């Protein structure tokens, strides 16, 4: 658990909403801790100490389906068959069909609106098909294949079978990243790690990072590692937005250094900036990045153009990423809390502000205003990514066209909307070249947010309308309220169940429990909407 916890803190930039760890201890017992909040807050020393065992899985959540309710925190658990826990990065696009299958064919109850809970149950259903008392690796490969035939969308997953091992797999388009690394330990044995990004492996001393191939499954057990291409890869199309924004610069994903790709984006953007500035006859005095993500590209852009690079915005290191926050109000407020403009770098200058992307325009609107407030002459905004005009359906939460500032707007209109004197976007071919030149064996990237071409197929106007209806900011707020009510309504019944559980705990049924409710949670913190709770796990800590 301490190592998984460390790994999750290195992946915190991928999800700030909720986090969780499940470990597997002696006799196949599972121990879990999950809640809304950041890794450092949820995993107290005591909580981690209670997560015993030699293998486990963890997750940091950035909700892209359902709500931010803690019932949707991962990993998820089902007891049958074999005791499976599951963590998923990505987003499914055929949830309606899968839900119908669950209901009508598999007769499995899905208790949240999380697509990950659904995916776990698809996996469980395929494992169950074996009908075996004890399964083997062959059965697992067959089950993962069954899941891949059925599930559509983006999914990089880790699953743990109690007392058996860990299974990692990546969808047939390889949209979201996933890799595996090893660490030799004295005596000849080997530790294994799977993670979304290689940076998590480096820090733990794991080596030989290998990307899981699209359509491949990896099984890790005491006996070693087995890999199999369970389904032929479709088009291998990693999401280019990982390189633009989501991933850490020190990670190498699918053979491409994120850092190098951002340097290349800065170089390429410099050419476009040069061209536009010459055409418009504007001179720029200084290049200023928008911390954090655009720094690498902005520095290279400034060097290429021979312009001074200045850190004119100072970032509050205690405020996380704003784009992945769930609500617009929160995002907007956080930009002001996060960034402060230093007048001495802006006053009386034509400033070129460089960001990695302009999505909703929340960041740019605020910082352009700040730049003006401290006396800039002209504010020119350059984006390492082209205009984002289409929703993302594969695990980046930008589901609604209306929320995208470039949707239905020309570049000039975007400038007006965000208050810039001029906006300069990278072209899509330049962005793709910046990334692809670092690994030409990747033939294409998932670029749907820029060109509206969805690599999996199955995403049409009707689907996007439907998605907008359930995922727009407005609807998320409504869903959260409805969910909150459901939780409150469930509470009365669940408290009663909890008390009964306490009796069982007191009689010694639960070896790991330390609290009065048999879950290890102090009664005052008891988690009261437990209808969705992973019944049967040894909960070590819950924030109510
Ligand atoms: O147009 P918007 O909707 O504002 O989205 C784009 C902005 O959001 C991200 O920053 P974020 O604060 O999330 O993270 P960072 O610190 O890694 O740059 C991204 O780097 C842009 O700055
Ligand atoms: N990025 C993620 O981890 C999202 C996983 C899943 N779609 C959810 O909303 O929980
Ligand atoms: Mg940013």
Automatic annotation (TrEMBL):
Record domain Glutamine amidotransferase type-2: where: 1-223
EC number of the protein: 2.4.2.14
Keyword set includes Cell membrane: no
Record GO biological process: purine nucleobase biosynthetic process; purine nucleotide biosynthetic process
Note on cofactor: Binds 1 Mg(2+) ion per subunit.
Pfam families: GATase_6 (PF13522), Pribosyltran (PF00156)
A GO MF term: amidophosphoribosyltransferase activity
Record flagged with keyword Magnesium: yes
Gene3D superfamilies, per the entry: 3.40.50.2020, Glutamine Phosphoribosylpyrophosphate, subunit 1, domain 1
Protein family per UniProt: In the C-terminal section; belongs to the purine/pyrimidine phosphoribosyltransferase family.
Name of the protein in its database record: Amidophosphoribosyltransferase
